[in-house]
Amino acid sequence: MGELKPGERLPSINEASEECYLSRDTVERAYTELHKMGAITSIFRKGYFISESSLKVKTKVLFLIGRMTETNQTLYNAFLDHFGKNVMVDIYTYQYKPREFKEIIGQQLGNYHYYLIQPHLIDEDEETVKILQKIAGDRLILLDQNFGTIRHSSLICPPNPSLKKIFNTQLNLFNKYRSLNLVLSEDEYFDPELINACREFCEANSLNFQVLDGLEEDDYRQNEVYFTLSDSDLFQAIKYVEKKNWTLGKDIGIISLNDHPFKEIIAGGITVVSTHPEKLGQKAAEMILNNQKTAEVIEPSLLIRLSL
To answer: Which of the two ends of the chain, N or C, has the fewest CB atoms closer than 10 A to its terminal CB?
Structure first.
């Protein structure tokens, strides 16, 4: 057919079918899709024509995550805001199940321009590597993890040893307490290295350390710090402190994972460890917009407020 300019007529469906050795249904579906995209226009009884307006094809991105947590929602919103209107993102969740992870990727191969994948609780085994290798390396971005045996770009915010370093800058605050309690949650994924980072910090500074699976009333003790990963546990802790008439930052300490505007205000201000999900989302958008292929590390930070 050659190259057609804006305003020129396309071959009819029958002509295109014969010339390209395609079924009539296939050509008709293609013309319908191009019409929806604005690439071509149709005039009754005259046929299809190349559209005069410039065509802007949206970048299609598959965003594959374990679950839509508070952190992932922040990351997703930042990605969309930074990318602008010229992107279409489909979100898939694999519920931290390796089989679903591989099935989703296998079913969606070739359907997207870019694959933004967060392989939480996914091992770099032979089957996983095989399915990820089917995605071109310059189209694959892994979040929070690096796989050494495949070509890809990555964005990670590692808790260890960075968390120990930032905690050590605030020893005068931690030394008011006798113990650090890391409160895990089913609502929010955590990197296993987070436990190691907290344990090593406590061992180095003569603090007791405990991992809690959620919070019960008998878990609360004075002169201890509670590092909550989910906002639901944060709210529960604040309610209990108010019930006991304890003073945050004096009788008990609270640290929360990742910031939100309400954490500046509630209970006089909540101290936050930020893994910068908004920055991860922005950087992921920049990598696609600028066609960057890189492995970038974003360091966590500690924002001190009254609760510590």
So the answer is: N
DSSP at 248: B
Write the pLDDT tens digit of every residue in 214-273. 999 999 999 999 999 999 999 999 999 999 999 999 999 999 999 999 999 999 999 999
Question: How far apart (Å, rounded) are the C-alpha atoms in residues 4 and 49?
Answer: 9
pLDDT digits (tens, 9 = 90+) for 27-53: 888 888 787 767 788 887 788 888 776
Q: Which domains does the chain have, with CATH numbers?
A: 1-57 (1.10.10.10), 59-157+278-300 (3.40.50.2300), 162-274 (3.40.50.2300)
In tens, the pLDDT along 69-102 reads 889 999 999 999 998 888 889 999 999 999 999 9
Q: How far apart are CA 255 and CA 166, in angstroms?
A: 13
**Cis status, amide bond into 161, omega within 30 of 0:** yes
Tell me if 110 sits within 8 A of 119, measured CB to CB: no
Q: Which distant-in-sequence residues (6+ apart) come within 8 Å of 11 by Cβ? A: 1, 19
- Amino acid at site 260: H
Alpha carbon separation from 97 to 114, 122, 165 (Å, rounded): 22, 8, 33
Residue bearing tokens 């310059």: 138
Per-residue pLDDT at 50: 83
Find the Cα–Cα–Cα–Cα dihedral 132, 135, 140, 142, rounded to 10°: -10
